[in-house]
Amino acid sequence: MSLHTETSRSKLIIYNAIIEDAGIYRCQATDASGHTEEASVVLEIYQRLTFRDVQSPQEFRHGETAEVVCDVISSPVPVVVWYYQDKEITEEHHSRYQVLANNNLQIHQVTKADEGVYRCEASVEARGEIDFVDIAVVVNVPPVLSVFQPSFNATADYQESVTFTCITSGSPDPMVTWHRKGQQLEPSEKYIFNKLEGGRSMLTIRNIRQVDGGSYSCKATNKAGSQERELFLKVFVQPHITQLKNVTAVEGSAAMISCVAEGEPLPDISWRRASDAQTFMDGDKSRDGRFEVRGRHGKSVLTISGVRLTDLGRFDCEAQSRIGGHQKSMFLDIEYIPKFLTNHTIFYSWEGNPVNISCDVMSNPPATMLWRRERFTISEGTPNMQIHGSEGKSVLEVTPMSDRDFGRYNCTARNNIGVRYQEFILAQADVPSNPYSVRLSAVSQRLATVTFMKPDSHGGVPISYYLVQYKELGSQDWRDVRSHSVQTTVVLTGLEPNTTYEVRVAAVNGKGQGEFSHTETFQTLPIREPSPPAVHGQRGMGKAYRLGLVKQDDGGMPIVEYIVKYKTDKEEQWMTKLVPGANDYAMLQPLQWNTRYEVEITARNVKGLSEPTFYQFFMPQKPDITESLFSGLGLGAVVGLGLGALLLLLVLVDVSCFFLRHCGLLMCITRTLCSKKTATSGKGKEMEEGKAAYLYTYNSRPTTLSTTEATVEGRKWQRVSQAGYD
Question: Transmembrane ranges (predicted)?
Fold first, then answer.
């Protein structure tokens, strides 16, 4: 407070007035004679709207009754209204919401959905005063902890790892800790902690040992509470096969395959044959009695009696217990006496012709192979013979030089299991027997088709081709025609019309030519008039029409000419056009527009005329001038005219731009040429002005101009600048 006293008045000033300053103030005055008078003043102080110590955010536990505190004072007492999501909270529409007498907002059984920003708005209507405060409401949800797999099995001493996973939810996000035997676990090489999205927390236990078995707990904690779940790790010793070896057996003998396994609990052992996936358990015996399994105390023996080649392959031994399994494979190799793979034992050749006699063998272990003849071993130095060998195969190349080289040859294959022999016969090849059933078909004036059946014997050597001979009856000169490869159809060409021929066929192989077949006789057709030609039409250029001519049977003699007659359908007189027989078309012109024509075409050879072929076509109406013009031009000419017109249009536009707008390609060329001349070149005033403007723009030294010129140049500079030039 501050007191200011003057001669006739006194002033009491209260700074920063508060509610407690309200009341009755008395002013007392005393004169010199001691007379006293007083007056009183009533001071009323109104409290403005004030929010006192309102906390934000305000936190509550999920499910409890929350009371959102809004402490507001004023005088007179304010009216308080609550808002949520820009809507007024009323008990009529919000059954769980209630505004208490102290202006606080009460929310029954608050949930996470109630979380958000609430507005507490206070107003004093008498003064028109209003104010608000936003309060963030946070709902803390106690941790919810779930475990999808509460127990795990693990195998000890195999450097395996197990990962426990806890999935937590809550608000705020819970903190997860792991415990064992009442002690909180800390990160180490043994225990690895990971936290992933979605509230997943993982504990990985590395290098599992038997002592790691037991219970573990996952504990989630936040402001709203905590929750704990137990997980269990059971450690087993997984089955492990310790002994299984490959076995080699001899075909027909017995094979014993042993498999030893360990584990806790002791595993059961079974066998599986990979070739057909057949399984054998302890005590099993196959239907044929060859496979039998016996086992005890972690050891199983598979016995195979009378081993066959089909038993060759992989066998799987599987040790299985209720906590896992282990599988290993072995290979059963079977040794057997050499076996010959081919039954082709007869080969044909002739003197001077080399032949390869192949001896193919399958054996295990690989066999050594020898060739013998008449008790003598054939070696590399044997005359007329060579040996080419590879694994499982030996080829004897024999070049017979006399009858003594034909006969029996022996191939001997030997390994440590046994020895086998195979005999081959080298026989003398013969020429083929004669073809038969020779037939003639499609006989014309100059062509004939010969067909026949293959010979019964090819002589031991494949047939190379067939030789067809033919001659005129009474002649001694046979003419030869070879077949294509071993086809049994041959076409004879260049025959004479109305002539009798003889034909015969022989087969030829590497040995030589066989006997000819029975001789057949046939006669070609006599010369006759040609067949009517086939015709197809196509409109030509302008008043022309093109007739395509397709030659049919020429009757045995070349077509000399085509006689083409044509007329309109309204005329009686025919017009005739002769076309050489070598031509394949006839051009009819000039013709009349919008007219139907009738055509008669006849082919002629030296024998006479063919029957006529009749044809009709229609000439369209006369095209207009434009169509006529462009119909006579090719595609290149039309495109050239179009490009020329486009170029002319561009030149006209550029010239217009030069005179009207002072721009364009011509303007650029003009400026370039002008820039190369000096200021005293003697050009006209307009060119001088343009040059001066150019120099004013680009010269580094100032240019002195007259007043008129400067004004003109100034205008030109503005125009250039507006046109967008530098």
Answer: 629-652
